[in-house]
Amino acid sequence: MGYKLELENISKVYGDGDSSIKVLDSVSLKVATGELVAIVGPSGSGKSTFLSIAGALLSPTEGRIIIADKEINKLSEKKLNKVRMENIGFIFQSANLIPYLTVKEQLLLISKLAGRQTREDEEKAAVLLKRLGLAHRADQYPEHLSGGEKQRVAIARAWMNNPEIILADEPTASLDSERGRMVVKMIAEEVKLSQKAAIMVTHDKRMLDLCDRVISIEDGQLTELAKEA
Ligand SMILES: Nc1ncnc2c1ncn2[C@@H]1O[C@H](COP(=O)(O)OP(=O)(O)O)[C@@H](O)[C@H]1O
Ligand SMILES: [Mg+2]
């Protein structure tokens, strides 16, 4: 089976000496192509820490991270940035949209920063906005959008550079359950349709049926939970 993301024996210690805490204790996870894995666990159990390490935003104290067959923890910061930009799409709890950019401009920002604003990017943005039911919002500013719409813009933005790996940290936390479910369905659909790999941290047990596997984090350990129907 092909894996898009492999985490091997990851440990994370914050701080040093007496005040240090070990949040992750040699945990491993492989995410296959086409798979959406849910991470659950109590507050403070290390879910965000784990996701940040998976997305190369945070270095582990120990362990290996393999993205697209590359061991990324050996890369220079410059190359790491390239991996983050090209291989990973992040979705956070709040959409983190830029207030003075329109919906369309949010999607085109990265390519603009990379100095390659093309016709192709514009078309891609239009297709994504249509797919996520946001075509009529393309020229509006975030302040005019509902919470669900903002989160869909964040998703469209994450899809823009067609990342192989999608990492979402409580993407439904600020939404009601119906809109939350819509967001998770969109992630699940993209994972299947485009053969990506995704990890989603969630507090919401009602979303778990949309995921392929459920992993719990507690006391520094990962445990695979049996999926409930
Ligand atoms: N930068 C940091 N420095 C020190 N401790 C941290 C830092 N980030 C998180 N922690 C601690 O690590 C533990 C796990 O945090 P986190 O990964 O945010 O958990 P979760 O996302 O499951 O709520 C918590 O006890 C938190 O206080
Ligand atoms: Mg968290």
- Output the strand order for the largest sheet: 6-7-8-3-9-10
* Percent helix: 25-40%
Tally of alpha and pi helices? 6
Low-confidence stretches: none
CATH architecture: 3-Layer(aba) Sandwich
Element string (H = helix, E = strand)? EEEHEEHEHHHEHEEE
- CATH superfamily annotation: P-loop containing nucleotide triphosphate hydrolases
Largest sheet: 6 strands, mixed
Radius of gyration: 18 Å
| Molecules bound to protein | adenosine-5'-diphosphate, magnesium ion
* Broad shape: globular
> N-to-C terminal Cα separation, in Å?
25 Å
Structural class: alpha/beta
What's the β-strand tally?
10
For this structure, what is the CATH class? Alpha Beta
Q: Characterize the quaternary organization of these chains.
A: single chain
CATH topology label? Rossmann fold
Mean pLDDT comes to 92
Give the tally of structural domains.
Answer: 1
**Per DSSP, what share of the residues sits in E-state strands of 2 or more residues?**
25-35%
